[in-house]
Amino acid sequence: MKKHLFPLFLLVLSMNAQAQQDFFALTGKDTPSIVFSDFRAIDPVNGISGERVFTAETSPKVFSQLRNSSVAEDKTSYNHSQSMTMATLAYDSFNNHLVYMPMFSSNIYVLNPKTKEITLVENTTARVTSCDINSHLTRMATGYDGNIYAINNAGTQFLQISKKNNQYVVNDLGIIKDDSGNGKNSFTTIETGFGGDMIADSDNNFYVFSASGNVYKVVTKELKAKFVGKIAGIPDNYSVNGAAVNSRGKIVIASAKGSPLYEVELESLQAKQLPGEQNLHIYDLASKYFVNDRATAANPIANLDIYPTRVDEQVIHVNGNDKTLKGNLKLTVFDISGKSVMNQNLAVKNGSLDQQVYLKNLVTGAYIVSITDEAGKIVLNKKILVTE
Fold first, then answer.
1. CA distance 202 to 199
2. Which of 28, 108, 157, 244 could form a disulfide with 121 if both were Cys (CB 3.0 to 4.6 A apart)?
């Protein structure tokens, strides 16, 4: 299978500093029930909390996409941006936004962590009722294609949240069913398959980590959940409520019960306790990373970059200013299957590079832009999302 013939998106650039910018936790208060506390940055290597970017006490500015106006929220209901009952979080790295949903609500919220401005996406696609545990949306992650995905407890709704023409659109992709070989480890029953969180891989498939510690691979095109195994190395009473991939391609899991973080190898499902804070109540984790992606070494040319990463005008800029820049560089664009779809030479003059690259005839989707030097050595990989 000639899938990924080149190193992909995970650039390991000073992990500790980077972790505070692209790894987030939805944390709760120290209570028996679900009570939202805050969204905070997390260092997933050292298990240490960082900045609290949004809390239950924050004064948000909420803008309704449907009404095209600011709204005043009813804080006595389940349908508001600081509802107690939150268990889903995803990180939209293209816009640097956090996306989340209250567990008992069909509302979707998109938070700008810097400005505290929130876009409210009202939709009728999500069918959630507070009294039906099967319908509660408890798993959410960003897919490799840049869209946000969420799955309810019973797998009867698989939602895709995408952005088109500056409007968020919600689609129901269908019902996820058990693989025939799952046996007693059913994805669709409360004891073995409910709750937890999900992560994405570089094929835009998903791994669901249920609260019981079971792991399922959800193949998006087939809408089937195949039992992979059970996490080993965690306490018997550990409730897995959050899961996200760190910059090393390892999975970090967290619990709502006030427990430490663990790092999990996907291949073996063996968990190793992380140092740091031991009593965090975490309902969900979110990051910009994916499993089965190819990690590269740190970018050898520090001042070489591509922007924007979310491309809506069919053009990107390649900019570099470094004495190690010399000769001619080659830019190649790959689709997510690893197929080369575009090539262009880049001219360096006196250690400087400032060039526009037009992305000819690229359809909407995720791509990897790879730049190599004259010897064929990769000097930069970066993921971009081409939008309409």
1. 10
2. 108
Nearest to 46 by CA among 20, 26, 13, 12: 20
DSSP letters of 129-153? -TT-GGG-EEEEEE-TTS-EEEEET
pLDDT in tens, 209-220: 999 999 999 999
Question: Which pLDDT score, from 0 to 100, does residue 180 have?
Answer: 96
DSSP 206-272: EEEE-TTSEEEEEETTTTEEEEEEE-BSS-TT----EEEE-TTS-EEEE-TTSB--EEE-TTT-BEE
SS3 18: helix
pTM over 0.90: no
- Classify domain 304-386 at the CATH topology level: Immunoglobulin-like (2.60.40)
Is the predicted pLDDT of residue 12 greater than 80, yes or no?
no
| Section 15-37 average pLDDT | 79
What are 371's strand-pairing partners? Answer: 331, 380
Report d(CA 266, CA 286) in Å as an integer: 17
Side chain identity at residue 358, one-letter code: Y
Give the other-Cβ count within 10 Å of 333's Cβ. 21
**Among residues 133, 23, 155, 135, which one has the least CA distance to residue 89?**
23
**Protein fold of 23-287:** Neuraminidase (2.120.10)
Domain ranges of the chain: 23-287, 304-386
Whole-angstrom distance between the N-terminal and C-terminal Cα of the chain?
31
Mean pLDDT across the stretch 116-145?
95
Tens-place pLDDT, residues 76-106: 888 999 999 999 999 998 888 999 999 999 9
Cα–Cα–Cα angle for 203, 208, 211, rounded to 5 degrees: 165
So what's the pLDDT on residue 248? Answer: 81
Give the helix/strand (H/E) hosting 156: none
Listed in sequence order, the DSSP H helices in the chain are: 15-22, 190-193
pLDDT at 112: 95
Tell me the one-letter amino acid at 97. H
